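Quick one: structure for this chain?
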Amino acid sequence: MSKKRIAALAVAAALAGGTVGCGADMDYNQRADYLTKTGQRGAEAHERLKVQGAKVDKDRCEKVYVATVYDDIPSGGIADGGWRSEVKKTFVEACLSGNAATPAPSGSSTPTG
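Got it. Here's what it folds into:
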């Protein structure tokens, strides 16, 4: 097994878990919370890749995203394709930059109160 494959698997194992369960569509605040956690996971992936001496690039960040986040994305209550794209973008950008800042979720719902 190549060192790159081992590094990707190690990152995937370290980042597994900590996701919101599937079920009913998420409201605005739940989507915002999920994007925040996804950004944190992306930033953690950045640090783990650096520690392992792996190159942090878009291709590698997308592979880590597929291995750690893709199958765990709950329904966002908006068009799933758009929601999944938003989650991927948040993770990959955080992975590339090492910063967990996240945008407000899209969708017609807005926070109340």
